[in-house]
Every structure is written in C-alpha cells, then in structure tokens.
Amino acid sequence: CEDRLNPAPVAALNSAEAFDTPSRVLLQVNNMYDYMKAGSFLGGRYQVYGDIRANDFLNRTSNLVTGAAVWQHTVTESSQNDVINLWGAGYSAINQINVFLAGLEANSAKFTATPFPSDFATTATGYAAEGRFLRALAYYSLLQFYARPYTDGNGSKPGLPLRLKAELDLRDNDLARSTVAEVYTQILADLTFAEQNLPLTNTSNVTRAHRNTAIALKTRVYLSMARYADVVTEANKIVSATAPFRATTGVQHALQPSITTVFVGNQSTTESILSFPFTPQDAPGTQNQLAFYFLPNAQGGGGEYSLNANGVLSDPRFLATDERNTSFVTRVSNVPYLRKYQNGALSPAPYTDNAPVMRYSEVLLNLAEARFRTAGATDPQALALLNAVRTRSAPTGAYAAFTDVAAAVDAVLLERRIEFLGEGLRNNDLMRLQQTIPAKATISAVPPTAALYIWPIPNSELATNTLMTRN
Amino acid sequence: QTRAVTGQVVGTDGAALPGVTVIVKGGAQGTSTDTEGRYSLSVPANATTLVYSFIGYASKEVVIGTQSSINVTLASGATGLDEVVVVGYGTQSRRDLTGSVATVTAAQIANKPVQSFEQALQGQASGVNITTPNGVLNAPPVVRIRGVNSISLSSAPLYVIDGIPAFSGNSSAVGSVPNNPLSNINPNDIESVEVLKDASATAIYGSRAAGGVILVTTKRGKKGQSKISVDSWAGWTEPVRLYDVLNTAQYMEIKNEAVRNLNANLVAQGLAPSAIEGFRPTQDANGNTVDTRWYDYIYRTGFSTSNNINFSGGSEKTSYYTSVGYTDQKGMLEGNTFKRASGRINIDHKVFSRFTVGLRAGYTNSRTASPNSGSVGDGAFGTAGLGRLPLVLPPNVPARNIDGSYNISGAGIGPGANINPTSATAANPNGSPLLPGYYNPLVDLENNYFRSDGNEVQGSIYANLELIKGLNLRTTYGVYNIAFEDKAFYTPIAGDQYNVGSASNFYRTNKRWNWQNTLQYDVTLAGKHNLSFLAGNENQNTNIDRWGLNRSSVADPFFTTLQGGYVNVASSGNFQGENFLTSYFGRINYNFSSKYLATINVRRDGYSAWAKKWGNFYGASLGYAISEEDFWKNSSALSKVSFLKFTGSYGEVGNAQGIDDYASLRLYEAGLYGPSPTFYLSSVGNPELTWETSKKTDVGVSFGLLDDRITGDVAYYRNLLDGLILQVPQAASRGIPGGQIPDNVGSMRNTGVEINLRVDAIRKTDFTWSINANLTTLKNRVLALASEGQRIGTATSGLETVNYTKAGQSVGEILAVRSLGVNPENGRRLIQLRNEDGTFTTVQYNHSSTSTGNGWTTLDGRNSRAPNQLVDGEYFGPVIPTWYGGFDNSFRYKGFDLGVFVQFSGGNYIYNGTKAGLHDQRFWNNDVDILDRWTETNRGGEWPRVVYGDNTSNGSALIMSNNVEKGDFARLRNVSLGYSLQPTLISRLGMSSARFYVQVQNAALLTKYSGIDPEISTNGASNTGAGVDRNSVGQARTYTVGFNIGF
C-alpha cells in the first residue's frame, strides 16, 4: 500500500536518480545547451534583437510579437515577448546550469563506483567547465540588454542578480542586483575555470564547448570591458601570429575560403566556434526562427525584417561585389532582405538553420580592434587580421594602411556590421562603445544617456523580487 | 397465520402506478404493484400497517385494520419527506437526514435534448449552480456547489456513478472539440441524482469532497413487474439571439466614413490625408453586389433524434434492468454532432436468503465532432473561430469566387474589391488589397475536422452477506475505463496549416479500479434508539495514458487522415499519470424516535499525489425534529406544521481534484538538444504539499405544512477554504521551471442561504398544480493569497486579462477603466484616469495612424498619458452569480401535463469582450447599433466618432466599463406539454402507459445583457476567469417532440 502511495512516473525521472549513471549526467550536459538555445534566448531572438535595435534592418509587420517594440524602442517593463521572455529564458538556463553544477558536487561520491568509469571525475570536471562556460555566456548576454555598459563607470552601475546556487524551493527568493563589475568578475571566473578544465576537443566542436570556445568568449568579454590588452592576450592563444590565421592548439579554428560555406548546411566548419543546432524534431518554435524573421515571404520566410537600404548596405565600403552582398542579400520588388539563413521553407523542413553564437572571424576582428587600440593604427598584424576577414569576401577591398586609430577602428566596426549581419553582435558593439543607437526610417536615434538605451528590468522580476531595482 | 390484502395504487391523476413497493411495516413481507397498479400481499396476522413507496412520490402508511382491500392514492412528491435518499455508501430517509442533500429525480433528467445529465440539472437543485459556457455539443457545463471552492485546483464536485467515482471534465486532446466523459452515461438510465453539500453529507468522501459530491444511481428492476419502455424524441436545434451585423451597404458606409475621419485627423495634424476609402463593392456572377451573411455558412437548424428501449423486471430472487440507447444530435453549428450508443445491464440476485450479488454494467460509444468554434480550448482570439468570424468578416466579400473556388488569399480570406485604406505610399498611390488575415470559414468547415470519440466500460459487481439480522458485509469491485480517440485534420488549402496541412491523432486511456468493503449494522434498541453503524475501506487506482502523433506537410490533398502521406512526423500530446487512494471510513447514525438525530462521519485518506500522504476528515451533525414531540403533535395550533426539523453540521473535508499526480515531486524530463537527448529539471516539487481543506458549516430547518402539502427547507452555509494551493510566484531570476512553486497558502470563504419550497398548490382528481422552487445566495470572499496585496490575473485564452483575484474581493473580479461615454462636442471616447493623489481626470481619445502623441488628451486639449487598466481600473464585483435558482411549475389536467421551468441567476458582472470586437474600427464588421455613432449631425450618438484603425475607443485594446454588464437573467429553460392516453385505452392497445409530448428547451431569455447569452463563459471552468464573453457561441434553442410508451 505504501508503495502504491508512491507511484513513480514512467515518463519523468525522480531527481534523486538523475546522477545515477554516466548517460544521465551527459543528458543533463546536453540540456544546459538546450536551455541556452531557447527560442527567446540564444536560439534566435537574442540574435534578432541584437541586430534590429540598430539601423541595418527595417520592421515590416509592426508585430509586437516579433520585435516591433525592440525595433522602435518602445519596450516597457511589461513587454512580454522581448523584455520579459529574454530575461526569463536567460535565467531559466542559468538555473538549469546551477542545478546541474550543484548536482555534480552533491553526487560526486557516486562517480567513483560502477557504473561510472574510473576516469569519470575528470569527465565530470569537464562537464562542470561546460556548465560554467555556458553560465558565463548567459550572464554576458543578459548584461548587454539589461545593464549599463561596463565602460560606463567601470562596471559601477547596477548589474544583474547574480544567481549561482541551485534554486529549487521556496527559500531565498529575493536577491539584489550585483554591480556590472561584479557580474563580469563572475563571468571571467567561470571562463577561466572553463578554459582550464574544458577538453581540447569535444564530441561536437560546434555545438559543445571546448577549450578554444572559452578563450574565444573571453576575447568578446574583455572587448566589452574595453580591456584591450587582455583581448590580445586571450586571442593570441588561438590565433597564429601570421596568416593564414588559425588556432594552433585544440580545435583548429580557421576562416573558410568562402563565407557561404559557413552557412550552408549545419554550420559545421571549423570557422563556427559555437552554434546551436535544430532539427525537425527539435525545431526553433514559432516566431523564433532566424529565417522566418529575415527571409522574404516569397522565399519562404515571414518577411518580418528587410534590410535597410540606408543602413550598412549604403556604405560604399560594402562593395557590390562583396560575396556577403552577392550571396546574402536578396531583393524582392527592390526590397533587400538578408539571406544568410537559407533553410527558410516552412515545409517540409521547419526552419532548421543553426543559431550562430561565435565564429572565428569574430575572434580575428576582436584581436584586430584590440591591437589597433593598443599598438596603434599602423599595427601590421591588426591590418592583416582585418583584411583576412574582409578580402575573403571582397578580394578587391583590402585596406592599404591606416594612419589614425579612429579610422582603423571604424573600419573594423564596419567590417563587423557586414560580416555579422543578422548574427546579433551589433548591440554588443554599440553598448561597449556607448555609441548612439542610430535612427532609421521614422524611428529616432537613442543616445547613450537615454533611459531606453538599455532595456527596462521586466516586471516579472520587479513584482516578485522585493530587492530588485529598476533601470 | 397470514391473510391476503389486495388493492390498487393510483397517482393523484387517477393513473395506475406500476412498480410501487408495498411492504409490511416492521416486517419482511413486501411486493410491488403490477402494470395496472394492482398488488396482492399476504401479511402476518400481527401486521398493523402497510407502507406504500415509490420513487418520486410521497410514501404513505395505511393502517390495515380489518380491510382486505386497500386502494391508495399517492401524491407525486419529488422531495417528499419520506423518500429514500442515497447518501455515500448507503441510503437514508429524508425525514431522518441531518446532512444537506438535494435530490433530482429521473423525470427531471430524462428525455431532454442534452448530451450529459448534469446539463439537465441546471436550476433543479438549490446550492448547485450550473452554467452552460457555450453552445457547442458535449462541452462540459460548469458545475459549482455552494460557490467556487478552489483557486488552482478543480472546483468541480466529485461524481460517483453507482458508488464508483467517475471521470469528469473536458478530456479531449484536440482544442476545438470538447469531450465530457459524463456524457457516456445515458441520462435515461438514471434513477436519481443526489447532491451532497454540507460536511455531514460529504465527509464520507473525505479528501475529495470540498466541491461537493454528486451521486448518480442508475435504474434497477422492480420486484413483481415486467416492463418494457420505449422513449423516443426528435428535435430541431437553431441559434437564437445572434448579433445583427452590418450588411454590405452599411459596412461600406461606416468604414469609408471612418477612413474620411482618419484623413480629417491627419489633416488636423498638418499631415497629408493619405488614407484611401477602400471599402468597395465586389460583384457576383450576376453583377450584383456581394452581400454575404456569414451566419448562413456557419449556423443551421440541426436535427436530432434519441431512442431508448429498456426492459426491467424482477422476481422474488432476481431483478434486472437493461437498456439500449442511441442518440444522434446535430448542433446549430455546421459540423457539430454528437452520437452516443449505450447499453446497460443492472442485476440484483438473491443467491440465498442472506446472500445477494449484483452487477451494474454500462458500455458506451460516443462520438463528438465540432468545427473550430473558438469557444472551447482557449480559442477565443483565434482567426478561425466560428463564434468570431461572422462578426469580423467583411460582408462585401464572398465565400466563393465567381468560378466557384474558395475566396482565399494565402491562409486568409481574399480581399474582394477592398483596398487597405492605410496601404498607400508614394510608390503605391492606389494602395494594396485589404487582406483581413482572418480565415474563410467555408474552407475550415468543408475540409478540416476535429473529433473526439469515447469508448467507456463502467460498472461494478458486489456481494452482500447478512451475517446476522441488520449486519451486512458488503464488497464491491468496480472499474471505470474510458478510451478516447481524438483526431484533427487541417487542410493545406488555407487556414491554420496553410501550405502545410497536418493530421494529429491522440489515444488516451483512463483506467480505474475501485474496491470497497463495508460493514453496516442497523439496529433498534428498546424500540426507540435507532442506530446505524458503517465501517469500511476503499482502494482506488487510476492510470491515465495518452500518446499522439502529428504528421505535417501533407503529400497530396487526397490524404485527410493520419495514415496518409506526409513529410514530417512528431510525437504529440504525451501524458502519463497514475494515482492511488486508500481510505478507511466510518459513520454512526443515531436517532431517538426519529426525534433527536445525530450523525458522525469520519474518513482517513492516503493519496499518492501529496507529499504529506495521509489526512483525516470528518463531519458531524445534529438534528431535532421538534414536530415529533408529543406536545407538538397534540397541539392543534402547532400540528398545522406537520413537520419541523432543525439541523446543524460542521466538518472538515479536503480537495484533491485537479492536482497533478506528481505535483509534489522534483522531476527531470527528457528533451532534445538538436539530435541529442537531454534530461531537464521540469519541476521542483514541494515536499510539504497536501490537501486543500474545506471547513463547512451548515444550519438548516426543514418543514412540512398542511399535511405536507407545502414542504421546504432553508439552510445557511459557510465554507471556509483553507490551505488553498497557489502557485507562489518566484523571482524570474531564480529560473524555476514554470516560474512558480505550488504551496498550501491561500484561503477563501463562501457563505449563503438556500431555500427550497415545494407546494402542491392544487390537488384535484382532474387537475393538479405543483410548484417546485429553489433559491440560493452566494457571497464569495478571497481571504488570503500567496503574499499580501497579491493580484492574480487570469488571461482569457492566454491573451487579454480581464479577471483579477485579490484578497478581500470575490474571486476573479473584472478590472476595467471607467468609461464616461462619448464627448458630445467631438465624438471621442471619455475615460476616467486616477491620479496619484487619488483625484480623477477625464481624458478623451482621438485615433490617428501617426504617432505624434498617443491620441489621449485632457478635455482642455493637453496631452495625457494613456489609461492603464492596472492603474486606473475599477473592480466591478463578482463574476459568479450571487443568487440563482429555479422555478418549476407542473400542471396536470386529465391526460394533459404541462411543465414550465424557469431558471434564473444574477448579481454577477460579465465582461462583454465580444461587444468590444463588434465596435472595432479596423476592417472588422460591426453591430448595426454602430449606425448610432457620433457625427456632426448626431452629437448624441451612443458610439464614438468612427476613425479607421481605432481599436481603443471600443475596448479591443483597453478593458473599459462600457463593455462590463450585469449578468442577471431568467431563462424559460424548458416548457413541455404532454398527453397521456387513458388507462382504458392503452390497456386495449396492449400498453401500460403512453405519453406524447412536445418540448422547447431554452424557450426564452429575459435579460438586459446585450450579448448572445449571459451564461457564456469563454474561460470555461476556470475558477478565476469566469464572467468573460469573448467570441463564444451561445446556447441554442431546441424543439423536441417525443413519446414514452411502456408495455
């Protein structure tokens, strides 16, 4: 009778048994990635929001569900689809990671006996490193929308509630915000742990983290903190001193000869450092798919956003012959659209393009910018790095030389806009440099002093966490 | 030494009553009357009194004396004081009852054009509020006994069919088609329905009794009688009270006027008047202007039939009842059908004088099909809902093109000649066609389908051994198994799965076994102390499994089933649950000369879903039948009151209905990361979770006047619900799955008064008139939620939030900003803002398509903030009726009978969101009353000046008081006129009874509510989301003709 009073579900696993076998632990590792690639987070919408906040895209449907408020800077604390959902998805991922990390620790005694192999302790440390890498990525990503840039007051501004424990019961609900600097400190601590403990290669080097993934993210994080010397130090670990630039240890990241090969199929080349995968069984979900946002209706997309003819498209340095123009810009009735995500047909494959997070070209451009800023406009390696990315797609577009740092950095930033169009890096760049979010169509510019320069804290947090403060 | 007594039993109408039980008082001898109401019984010499009883009639005691022939007339008395009342695990005489139990008899349930018996209970019993949330066949009614009894769990009562707890609530996996498992019970098989309301009556059901208990008893054969009955009816169902919407000419007039007003607004801002008067006539094949009445494609007169045959009988040893039934019902919505084939066998057999066995068994196949009505399954805002489409779609576009093809454009309906008024640009000065985005309902109706079938096997076997006189040991084993097969198909032609096409099938099994063992001892000591003891235990196991598939991207239009050709396949709708309930219970009834009465019920339950598994529940009651005192009986003044009993009860019962089987557990579920499987933390559980508690108090008085020609009762009830499970919201940054953790933290109270009155107003041989009336009041107060000041919003179909639940108020009150009407100066909607200092400011809205300001200004023209529901809103009071009841009149003149049944309800508010939509100034069609809009020449117009694109002034984008209405109504729910053939005639025809009747269900509605139906509840059975009318279809009117013939 007591047994009958404790029926075990057969389609769900009791938490007490979650760490009983190596396979269950591995499935939870996969899960941390899966939460990071939630449609509302890095599985699509983070990338979309990162681009549409700026001026390279035009909203075509005025649909609040698909980012119209982000595009026109009218988000509020109660904006469900963006402000509330991105926060919720980010922190859901963080808690799944924290629960896993706590579980690894609590169950470490099990790992020394069968069915666990004798070297599982090392494996488990590697898993923990994957968790901490992902947690760093989650906090970094949330900071770019919900907190003032690090460069505004050296991280002294209010950051995020720093949740590092497994949240499982009714206790410890309220938590105040840490400063931006405190959150960055945690991100760097996680990434350093990850770098030291991640394997050199993983079962998939695009959809799972390995040591170079952590290093690559460190270059992005230091860049956002304007710690350019550290960017150089980190990038040097995975970028050879001379062309052809590539990583010489761990996964051999390198640029592909043609950028189109990066986006054909499943972004599985060594240029993709981290992308999140989708399949028809594990689809991105309605109105999260990158192809749905950017492809025109006529090509199977939702036509939500077209390219802004007055955005980066109009910059003379974005050459008409540039492969990123010839291959990734498509025009329907003279309206330009981005065609980087090509699996756009609703049927039969439901938009299964991977969601990109980091590519090797970003590391090269991170390093180029950091070197221009630290070694000066004439730094030959910086120029070589910039040209490596640029001339791959625009063979005739090589920059000769720069005489002033501002011009050199400007060239790098423009290259980033062209190279990562639709990959969601634009907002990161605007924030770290505290640049004005440019005007577009009828939408005014947003200067860094404006309240809406960053998103409001969602009311889902304000209403439930008494220690939370508004932006 | 015995002697024979013979006689005939007739009703007050003079018709013979077959099946009346005749027993010797205090003895073992008994019989029942034959088809002509005659009986013959040998009685012992020492017998003094015979008792005549018959369900639905007041029983009668007659002193034998020296008579050898006794003819008796029984008065029909549905709530007669001496009737036998079914209570949990037994029966009791109403006279001795101290708990609160309402009885509804077979006649009130059978032969109604309903799908499930609860629908027929509407208005029939005090304390039971039943709402028909929409007019879709087989949608479960919302049943509330003495108020809303939970916030997060189910407020529904526990249904028990012949002792075995039933499955209830919509069980379909396909949103568009409802399936109420209780419709598998053929209402014609039901002998009586008892509603247990207070703690004394319900405590024997312990942890499941907070929402009350409804006991259904199916028919049994009667001793000494062999009978065949045929009951048939045919019915016609049609919609009533549909909104009058604009025809083509009116539509084009209003919408183009709205465009002109928009242009005027643009000019006033110094902008170009760029909007196009794009609402233009479309021609049909004959060159006439298209004027589509969308209702004609969606509604119809549905024809229904129902046929039931049963035969029953009994000998000294065996009695049996068997029936077969088939009903085929077509609703007023095209494609909405319900079919049920059912069979039942009930047998009781006396193996030895002290050993009885029996069987109750029913099998049913039911099939429900429905189009997407938008009225069930959170579909209120869908672009396919048939409740909404005829209100929204332009009348000046056709359903079909001239060539006969569907008028479609992509997924939605085609534009006809209409041009999108705001689509003109410099490059496109003539604008683009107006694509509504809503679907062509014809495509859905002719190609898609949504079906839910049920196969139910339900029943039990029992054995009863009388160990010594009065001591019965009984064991009952029951099963309740239902298999549901749900199917959906969406065409790729247009609509929800445009260009894709998909089919889904779901298979669900509910399997329950239940084993009860009871020991009952009835004894009378010293002739006056009547004692009854019950002890028992019960174990119940329930398994629910569901799995399903969705296949999409149909290969060819030829395929319309899951088995066809598709590109993709995905699992869908998987569910697995198991729960176990184990219980010990007991009852003591004591009465002293039927004068002083006491009952104690206790139950101890262990339930698997809870973290704290075991709970104790009880109910105790006292009664005092003062009219049984000698001083009362001997006083000529007092004895005018033939019966007077005071009762009181208190107890604590629990609520477990609706809790997830694994709610207290911390669980991981499987997912996918691309091609790799995952385990994710799916719920954190709560290791403290346990029952919600309902502390019920009941004080009542029942009475009989003038020899019980007037009987009734009045009761005051108070239910204090404690430890209500609420999903305690967690900081979003905690990342807890679902964002909340269930905990026993809330409390709520329901109080009210119930009055029942039964009057035999006229009792003549040729003419009788009886009145049955009941009235219930209800006051609901939420006392505590998860945190101080918490405001729980309940969204309608997941979108618009109208209802808010807050401590100190009734559950789910409507929060709306105050509309102050239309400004006669300029035709703008006036809204009241609440300022931070508590004062009010009146603001007005002027729509324009550009964003220079938000359109809101003060009366002196300054820009204002926009009204905000949470800041400026007011609460409007309860959304659940504060008073309700029924008023039933039965007339009988010779062979004619007339029933007039009025159901009434009120004191509640309704948010009429449908009305908001009907005055929206996008391309949506409008109610004809929009013609009384403000214009320069009609400054007193009821509706604001129409401005194209304005969805604020009407309430689509702002919950406003203009769309909040009172929900009071009286409904002529049923009128029936019957004629029974005279006994002499029918016996010549070889029949024992024959009645022909006509009946109108939902014959008339008296209400000030402006919507289709004040009973509409778009959020269905939601505890906190009642009182919302958003695009749902109302109740139909049904005319039936039928006959009941007995042989």
Relevant terms:
heterodimer, A: 471 residues, mainly alpha, Serine Threonine Protein Phosphatase 5, Tetratricopeptide repeat, two-stranded antiparallel sheet, 16 helices, 7 strands, B: 1047 residues, mainly beta, Immunoglobulin-like, 22-stranded antiparallel beta barrel, 5-stranded mixed beta sheet, 11 helices, 6% helix
CATH class of the domain at 17-198 and 445-471 in chain A: Mainly Alpha
Q: What structural class is derived from the secondary structure elements of chain B?
A: mainly beta
Note the total helix count of chain B.
Answer: 11
In spatial order, strands of the major sheet of chain A run 2-4
Helix amount of chain A:
40-55%
Could you describe the 3D structure shown?
The complex is a heterodimer of chains A (471) and B (1047). Chain A contains 16 helices and seven strands. Chain A has 471 residues and is mostly helical. Chain A has a domain at 17-198 and 445-471: Serine Threonine Protein Phosphatase 5, Tetratricopeptide repeat (Alpha Horseshoe). In chain A, the strands form three sheets. Chain A has a two-stranded antiparallel sheet with strand order 2-4. In chain A, a hairpin with a 2-residue loop joins β5 and β6 (335-338). Chain A is globular, with a radius of gyration of 22 Å. In chain A, 53% of the residues are buried. The mean pLDDT of chain A is 94. Chain B has a domain at 2-76: Carboxypeptidase-like, regulatory domain (Immunoglobulin-like), CATH 2.60.40.1120. With 1047 residues, chain B is mainly beta. The radius of gyration of chain B is 31 Å and the shape is globular. In chain B, β26 and β27 (529-554) form a beta hairpin. The mean pLDDT of chain B is 92. The interface between A and B is large, with 64 and 58 residues. β1 of chain A pairs antiparallel with β33 (667-673) of chain B, so a sheet runs across the interface.
